[in-house]
Amino acid sequence: xGGYGLYVWGSIGASLLLPLCEFAAxxxxxxxxxxxxxxxxxxxxx
Length: 46
Fold this sequence. Notes:
The protein is mainly α. The chain contains one helix and no strands.
């Protein structure tokens, strides 16, 4: 790769890793939001 392999593979790695991290963060935020809604509903019912 003409001495640019580190940059090429680093870019490919970042292109794969960052969307996976974003997906994981979205799942965690969604789970937290659903748990908060459930707590609010449970509190409102009492």
